């Protein structure tokens, strides 16, 4: 059955409750995506071997390799945000033709990107493993090459999810990632516990689950009525829409890549801490656990970013500046509350969370140590990403990239490299240094908001003034109430899945 848009959409009616209804599935999907990735580490850490050294090396291999895969995934998601924002504006403006051309262009862009990234991963896997100082380079290379072979499915999943978020539907992406998560966990257990394939087993499970999710999502899509057309004629590089996607998405992809590259540097530094091989592998294993735990905690800030991006983009298209301002105010208080809860969880609950992924005592200790420093980061991460989502929806993706690069290369990486050279370097200090970059970025974003607030308001006024008015008939004009009702009926007629 085809569902029509809810009257309390993102561009009309109430603001806070529709935003929460949109954001919660996004948060759940991001959480499941983190669980999808974490299942590999959990199964390896608990079932690969009873030997501590073997377990630590396998855990470090999956964690280090997963860090590289996460870096690649963030690049894909950055470009996906460009698609989401571009499509959201066409949906807000009720422009079906523009939405159709955006989808067709997106398919072409993602196909090219998937092929390029796959080639990079297959050729570069051994070099990445060596550069990351992986305790067992062979295992890490194996994991990267197998996962790299499935990047076409990772790209397809993120592209499909981005399209649905752009039309205001966050429920289907949750279904897609839920399917992948269940399949991945089942295959992890089968291939590691029963087949004994170890690191190779979890990598095979990862790409197989993504493939299943993509196939099922395409079947679901084929049975739904959408606010855009999808056919062979539309699948090509439409000049205007391709340019819009790239202008919005490339800076965000570059930001995500370079910002998360700084976390790869942290991983490389963490893998070198320790004065002897046993401590070295334990620290590397502990930080690998941290990679997965921080992915879970980041599910909430990422949900703020994506939700605010879509809300802002749709209301930019619908020319609703006051609605955007109100939504921003609501989300500021919500993000602050969420940040406090995340900070307390990371500082006091590190050991408890780490035990889920490994039974090795040393690894648990080092994982908890890093999370105590990272708690300062978690305190303001929701606020930073929410404001970044606001700027993305407004079209300030170049600024989003700039502030991300400043935080990564002017603060996070220099501080961590300095700390790593000291005699008493610890994971706690590394985690706390990383937080300093987040605070710097937040301050820059706040300053940017107040500097450009008036400029954005004038832009909306100019756009409204330049709109061609329909000639008024001499006969009786419909009342404002009847016009509003007619607009609502017209919007309800648009086939959008909720």
Kindly describe this structure.
- This protein is mostly helical and 498 residues long.
- It has helices at residues 16-47, 52-92, 96-131, 137-148, 151-166, 171-194, 198-222, 239-270, 277-297, 299-317, 321-348, 350-354, 361-394, 397-420, 427-465, 480-492.
- The longest helix has 41 residues, at 52-92.
- 54% of the residues are buried.
Element order, helices and strands?
HHHHHHHHHHHHHHHH
The major β-sheet equals: none
Percent of sequence in beta strands:
under 5%
Low-confidence stretches: 1-8, 463-498
Shape: globular
Say how many strands there are. Answer: 0
> Mean pLDDT across all residues, rounded?
79
Topology, pairings included?
Blueprint: H1 16-47, H2 52-92, H3 96-131, H4 137-148, H5 151-166, H6 171-194, H7 198-222, H8 239-270, H9 277-297, H10 299-317, H11 321-348, H12 350-354, H13 361-394, H14 397-420, H15 427-465, H16 480-492
Helix pairs in contact: 1-2, 1-6, 1-7, 1-9, 1-10, 2-3, 2-4, 2-5, 2-8, 2-9, 2-10, 3-4, 3-5, 3-8, 4-7, 5-6, 5-7, 6-7, 8-14, 9-13, 10-11, 10-13, 11-13, 13-15, 14-15
């Amino acid at each position: 059955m085809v569902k029509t848009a809810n009257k309390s959409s993102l561009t009309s009616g109430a603001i806070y409750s529709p935003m929460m209804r949109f954001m919660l599935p996004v948060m759940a999907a991001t959480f499941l995506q983190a669980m999808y990735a974490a299942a590999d580490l959990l199964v390896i850490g608990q079932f690969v071997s009873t030997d501590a050294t073997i377990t630590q090396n396998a855990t470090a291999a999956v964690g280090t390799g997963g860090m590289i895969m996460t870096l690649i995934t963030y690049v894909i998601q950055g470009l996906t945000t460009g698609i989401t924002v571009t499509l959201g504006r066409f949906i807000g403006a009720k422009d079906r033709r523009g939405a159709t051309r955006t989808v067709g262009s997106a398919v072409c862009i993602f196909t090219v990107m998937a092929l390029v990234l796959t080639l990079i991963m297959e050729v570069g896997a051994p070099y990445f493993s060596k550069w990351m100082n992986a305790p067992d380079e062979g295992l890490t290379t194996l994991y990267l090459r197998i996962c790299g072979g499935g990047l076409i499915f990772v790209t397809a999943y993120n592209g499909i999810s981005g399209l649905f978020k752009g039309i205001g539907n966050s429920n289907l992406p949750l279904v897609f990632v839920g399917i992948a998560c269940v399949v991945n966990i089942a295959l992890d257990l089968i291939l590691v516990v029963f087949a004994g394939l170890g690191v190779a087993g979890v990598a095979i499970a990862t790409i197989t689950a993504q493939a299943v999710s993509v196939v099922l999502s395409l079947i679901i899509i084929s049975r739904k009525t959408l606010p855009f057309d999808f056919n062979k004629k539309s699948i090509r590089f439409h000049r205007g829409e391709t340019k819009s996607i790239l202008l919005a998405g490339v800076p965000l992809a570059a930001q995500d890549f370079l910002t998360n590259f700084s976390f790869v540097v942290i991983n490389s530094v963490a893998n070198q801490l320790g004065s002897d091989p046993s401590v070295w592998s334990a620290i590397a294993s502990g930080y690998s656990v941290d990679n997965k735990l921080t992915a879970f905690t980041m599910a909430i800030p990422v949900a703020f970013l994506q939700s605010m991006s879509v809300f802002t983009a749709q209301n930019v298209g619908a020319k609703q500046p006051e609605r955007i301002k109100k939504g921003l105010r609501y989300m500021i208080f919500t993000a602050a509350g969420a940040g406090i809860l995340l900070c307390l969880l990371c500082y006091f609950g590190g050991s408890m969370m780490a035990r889920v992924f490994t039974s090795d005592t040393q690894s648990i200790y080092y994982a908890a140590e890093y999370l105590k420093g990272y708690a300062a980061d978690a305190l303001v991460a929701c606020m930073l990403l929410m404001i970044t989502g606001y700027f993305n929806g407004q079209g300030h993706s170049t600024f989003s990239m700039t502030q991300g690069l400043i935080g990564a290369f002017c603060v996070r990486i220099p501080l961590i490299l300095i700390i790593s050279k000291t005699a008493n370097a610890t994971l706690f200090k590394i985690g706390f240094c990383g937080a300093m970059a987040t605070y710097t970025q937040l301050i820059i974003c706040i300053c940017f908001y107040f500097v450009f607030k008036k400029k954005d308001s004038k832009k909306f006024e100019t756009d409204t003034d330049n709109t061609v008015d329909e000639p008024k008939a001499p006969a009786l004009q419909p009342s404002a109430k009847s016009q509003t009702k007619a607009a609502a009926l017209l919007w309800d007629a648009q086939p959008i899945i909720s």
